[in-house]
Design goal:
The chain has one domain. Helices cover 62% and strands 3% of the residues. The protein is built from 16 helices and four strands. Strand 2 and strand 3 form a beta hairpin. Helix 4 packs across helix 13. About 8% of the residues have low confidence.
Length: 350
């Protein structure tokens, strides 16, 4: 009983830490920007000469972005494919390196975004709803890029009101209302019944996936430890011994380039998808929103820049539709489909 009580307390503590990080995501991001910019201003020569800096940045940026686009976005938010339990853990861990909030928080915001894309209640639309003559203003663009992060809770509540008032979503809301009440309750780890937002019932009612969200804070901490551990190993490989100075230089380099700068760039890639991806580009399909395709953003974000294609068919794992549209994450997924880690739900038109 004592061991079980310790496990319950441990999980509860992790949940509280994850909720804290969710609430103060904007403050956390501003701190990361300061930590990334100040060394460049006052000690650029020292920072730029840190060993293996670009290697750490490129490698961990790739891992974090793959975790974000394949994990948080394509699997947890849209359930576009089937994943083994082991792969679910790997995806949640890799996505936590993006430092963009817990799994449930990210999926909830994204599902509301799709439900009310570029309408009142969309958490991060660049549309200026107050000016029909000017679809995108500086203020609305800033909101889609940065502003929405400062009041995520308000955005979610606005999305809920928009869902209820929108005729296009009324049928879906009515269907969701039927599963509220006891069917919406789940037994939490502390033995108490909690209520889940109807948009993430599937995530909350799955014990493993609920744990992946609760352990966001722990995963974020472990990801930093992993980056530091790899940097120590790299220093040992380079010197053939435990050279204290080289190890220290590699650890500082890994923390700066592989954690701080990488986290800022990962968030910026998501931000430009939210703002530029719904403001500038071309369209392959007529949709009810303002989603656009942007080849440059698509390359930078491993395929996330083809927003128009994605909003046209959000269940397709492949966000590209033209030969010149490159969705690198979908290529990676096709390789994974050859392994026991992941399987397609149905035959898709790649």
């Amino acid at each position: 009983m004592k061991a079980a009580s310790c496990i319950v307390s441990f999980i509860g503590f992790n949940r509280q830490c994850s909720a804290f990080l969710d609430r103060y995501h904007w403050n956390q991001y501003r701190l990361l920007i300061v930590l990334a910019v100040l060394p460049c201003i006052f000690a650029w020569k020292q920072v730029s000469s840190l060993p293996n800096g670009l290697l750490y940045l490129a490698s961990w940026l790739l891992v974090a972005n793959l975790g974000l686009t394949i994990g948080y976005h394509r699997y947890y938010a849209h359930k576009q494919f089937l994943a083994s339990n082991f792969f679910k853990i790997i995806l949640a861990f890799a996505a936590s390196m993006s430092w963009q909030g817990s799994l449930n928080s990210w999926a909830l915001q994204h599902r509301i975004h799709h439900s009310l894309s570029d309408q009142q209640g969309d958490p991060h639309s660049p549309r200026d709803f107050s000016n029909s003559q000017k679809p995108v203003s500086f203020k609305s663009f800033y909101h889609a890029h940065y502003g929405w992060m400062s009041h995520v809770g308000q955005q979610i509540r606005a999305g809920e009101k928009g869902m209820i008032s929108s005729g296009r979503n009324l049928a879906y809301v009515n269907r969701l209302s039927k599963i509220l009440g006891n069917n919406n309750r789940y037994l939490d780890f502390d033995g108490q019944y909690k209520y889940a937002h109807p948009y993430i019932l599937d995530l909350v009612q799955n014990p493993l996936e609920r744990c992946m969200s609760d352990f966001y804070a722990l995963f974020s901490l472990l990801s930093v430890i992993l980056v530091v551990g790899v940097s120590i190993f790299v220093a040992f490989i380079q010197s053939g011994s435990f050279d204290d100075q080289l190890i220290l230089a590699n650890v500082i380099s890994a923390i700066y380039w592989g954690v701080i700068v990488r986290s800022v760039l990962t968030q910026e890639m998501s931000n430009i998808t939210n703002s530029l991806g719904h403001a500038f580009g071309y369209r392959n399909f007529e949709t009810k929103d303002c989603s656009k395709n942007n080849i440059l953003i698509g390359l930078l974000t491993l395929g996330e820049g083809f927003q128009n294609n994605h909003h046209y068919n959000s269940m397709s794992i492949n966000f590209s539709r033209r030969w010149y549209e490159i969705d690198l994450a979908s290529y990676f997924l096709k390789i994974l489909f050859l392994t026991p880690l992941a399987k397609p739900i149905q035959k898709q038109s790649y």
